[in-house]
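[Q] Does anyone have a clean structure-token version of this?
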Amino acid sequence: MTMLFETGLSRRFFLRGTGGGLLLGSALGAAGPSFAQSTGASGGGGPALPPDGPTGRPMPEMEKAMPEAPGKRLGYAIVGLGQFALNQIIPSFAESKSSKLVALVSGNRDKALQVADRYGVEQANIYDYQNFDRIADNDEIDIVYIILPNALHAEYTVRAFKAGKHVLCEKPMAVTADECETMIRAGREADRKLMIAYRAQYEPYNMEAIRMAREGELGRIRLVTSDHGRILDPKVPADQWRMVKALAGGGSLYDIGIYSLQAARTITGEEPVEVSAHISSDRSDPRFREIEELVAFQLRFPSGALANLTSSYSTAPVKRIQVFGSKASLVLDPATEYERHQMMVKTEKEERRVQIPEGNQFAAEMDHMAKAVLEEREPKTPGEEGLRDIRIMQAIYQAAEQGRPVSLETTGSTAR
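[A] Here you go.
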């Protein structure tokens, strides 16, 4: 019989439900002397009584790690105050442990002033795109987080490196492989770190799926499928530049197909050796006059594993990853949402729901970059990772255009 299990319930939820130590403390306080008499606590050998009044108590067991001291947190400048930056990234600094918001870069000063006022950023630390290079004079800024249209990633990454800052850059890394290589080279010349913001690699459910696959819990991985789709909406400012190829570099593949591609590469731990693809676009639709609408592509890996992947700008929302191994299969749906992920693992004998604590993937991502800088080590998702994806996506376009598979140069495992 198929059985459903839920795993990963934590002590934290029990404590929340009961009031934790507060409930226990109030009960002990109500017991008063009778508790002391029954336990012998009034003597020297029994447990200590709760204090009669307010007093300093020892540090309790911490269920959530405290942030680093302010002087040990690195300062971020956020470049681009659009929907994603304002709704996801900037609020996440409240949950970060090693990062802090110290500067803003925007072409709209009124908006920047409002944001600075709400998040405690000094007005002197507000920049625009013309005076951006003045960040070189601001020692509070350690890392620049670039959240601009894809075609601007390379320019502002290079300028940030010239200003002596480390760079966290949104995905896709750039429009072309040449731009990616320029960004990597500029970082090396400046002796500064470059990390690409592949947030799913810092999200707990995705990390668990990768771990299970890599450690053999699913058996030999034979097939990965992943679908990412949404409706491109011209009324939304964040989608307007995505309709322009010169700014976006590509359509649904560059924007959300990259999640499907990343899923296949990170879960298998391999680099694809061949890609096939088909593209379907309704050119009568103004949204798709310059960019592609729907992409279906297949990857072949050295182990013989295959990946069937899609991206779409004209379907109902989907963010799903499925992994099929010789021992078990895994479904992560939604897989790359901002929160509320769900994972199911199925074998011949059972089907179980995997439940683990949700974590703020954006805070984790920024903190990972800060730690890499502080500890002088390479981040998990460096510029080379972004370059690989751009090269593969360019090959996907080529395969679709030529109507035949395209061989890829193997660049080694992504295992870290």
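[Q] Thanks! Anything notable?
[A] The longest strand covers residues 314-325.
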